[in-house]
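Structure ticket #2291
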Amino acid sequence: MAASKTKNSETPPSYRVCQDDSHAPERTISLAGRLALADANRIHVDLLKGLEGGAFESLTLDLSGVEYLDSAVMAVVFEIERVAKEDGKKFQLSGPSEAIKGLIALVDPEKLTAAATAAKKPKPERMLAQIGGGALSFLADARAFIVFVGDAAIAMAGSILHPGSVRWRDTLLHAERAGADALSLVGLVSLLLGLILGFQALIQLKQFGANIYAADLVGLSVLRELGPLMTCILVAGRSGSAFAAEIGTMEVNEEVDALTTMGFDPVRFLAVPRIVALTCVVPVLTIYAGFLGLLGGLIVGVGMGDLTVSAYLIQSQKAIHLWDIGQGLIKCEVYAIVVGLVGCMRGFQARGSAASVGRATTSAVVTGIFLIIVVDAVLTLMFQYFGRG
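Resolution: structure written out below.
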């Protein structure tokens, strides 16, 4: 037996580690002395070194010379056993005292190792299970949205019958945040959108000498589709997420439960002012966005399309009808209701912790934008086949 001692200039170890250096298929490592928490890390290192090298098939840990052993070192022994078994080696303990046997009996190393292995290697879900889970989650969200729409409709009807019960001060505050505070962002995006549409239209129409029809393309696209769509996507990102975060924080802090306890309807108290605010300010934002989008097209048409301002405006007047503006306003009103409903619903769904508020906020934006696109497709088809456009 060749002894190898861990050296430490500050605190000499109170234990000994002895390793059988022979090349036999069985390797024995002997521990002796007092094995306590203070030396657990060094014992761990020494035992790991004992596992290195050699083509041995089994490892025996001899504890016959151990005077004292605490739970920290026993955890090290279990770790060495796990490492040895992962390397395909057999492991066994030899010569433990009755006290050590009692300590070992307190823990089942096989169950401990199995639990750790299961935690490290979770079984991936099968694709069919993932698809089914996604479908069930979608159906649950659809059901929750329908239920919340019903609750909001009842609360809105009660507010119409009793307008004095509406929190108008909060409604004005939300209108300011969703409308006035968004003017700069909506205006910049709409102006850039008009510039891009005008530029792309001119690139194609110049090939046929039809520069003047860039006014038609920009005007109809901005007023019918892209103006309301981009405006409400921005509102979903700003106001929809804010609604979910505010109501979600109140839900987590149990303020919504307090409102219910005091006899207030949370939907009527919290959701109605926000939805009313959006339905009032989003049409104004849409008209503002449409104007700046047309301005962007005018700038490109005059600057790059060899058009005069009067010619561009006259052509826009010929192409754009009142019903085109009406389509955009109808769409933006529906979008505003959808964004308000989704933002408030996700806020009420927050539970437990701040993390759930974050998830509710993210879900409000994603769901709101998705529903805006779906509603836009439905309304566009309806206006095409049943409207004047």
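Closing remark: Residues 41 and 71 are 13 Å apart (CA to CA).
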